[in-house]
Amino acid sequence: MAEGDSQSRLDVAFRCCLYAGGIIGALWVYGLLQEKIMQHPYDGEAFTESEFLVFCNRFFAVWFGLGMTWLYKEDWGLKAPLWKYVIVSISNVLATTCQYEALKYVSFPVQMLGKSFKMMPVMLWGMAISGKRYGWKEWAIAFFITVGVTMFLLTGPIASPSGENTDSKRDSIKGLFLLVLFLALDGITSPMQQMLFEQYSTSKYNQIIWVNSVSAAVSLGLMVGKGTLLKAFAFAGQHPALLANALELSAAQVTSQFFIYSQVKEFGALVFAATMNVRQLFSIMTSYITYHHSIT
């Protein structure tokens, strides 16, 4: 019995590490491409339509989900009230848009550090949405991470080298505001995903289909409403490298979604938040090496 329990724990640990490795690897590629697209001009012209990237990501994710439900013969129909998928979707789209927009005003390492606050919002939303309770160790870890990141952000320049104006202080304030908005919105997403798994027994592919369908519609609607849809496609037509990067970005994002949904389903939103903290550190060091950013 003890041997069986030990093997079971090893299997659980292996799956957790596998999902974490998949998330970190896929989002590592995603982060590098995100920084390349939003902070490095194409033939001297900057791309600014972040909703276009969100739309591409979600569009390809829908087809991935449909393909997997067909492969595993799962039911792709609604398993939970549509409005609950919509909450996950809208919070995710707006959070993703905020993180893209933040890169116009703060550097990529600062964006990554800001996202390390993720544990605290996830815990608070988990309590509000599903009545979760956390022990003092979880609160202590989240608190010290929050304090450490705050001190780090206050000790050096944080503005993006490609800021939209020459006032670096103003850029920094805009970027930090977008990061706070990102954290508030992103903190809703994984607790809601966990709630859908627990209360409605949805599969990860079912959530991928419906959440990303709504997200694609929302991001498309935002582009139409802002009048940037044709501008984004025109830019892609003039700069084919952008389209190639957007496709690569979508592939990395879909891969990350597979591992994220797997981890949230089996281990919960807080484990995912902790995984993301490891990912931020890895991405910051890679960005430092690749794009020669300063760390402080």
Termini Cα gap? 52 Å
Tell me about the biggest sheet?
none
Q: Which shape, going by the Cα principal axes?
A: globular
Low-confidence stretches: none
Task: Explain what you see.
The chain is mainly alpha-helical and 296 residues long. It is 79% helix and 0% strand. The chain is built from 11 helices and no strands. It starts with a helix and ends in a 5-residue tail after the last helix.
Question: Any chance you could write out the topology, listing elements then pairs?
Answer:
Layout: H1 2-39, H2 50-71, H3 82-102, H4 108-114, H5 119-130, H6 136-153, H7 168-200, H8 204-226, H9 229-238, H10 240-267, H11 269-291
Helix pairs in contact: 1-10, 1-11, 2-8, 2-10, 3-7, 3-8, 4-11, 5-7, 5-11, 8-10, 9-10, 10-11
Briefly, what is this?
This protein has 296 residues and is mainly alpha-helical.
Features:
single chain, 296 residues, mainly alpha
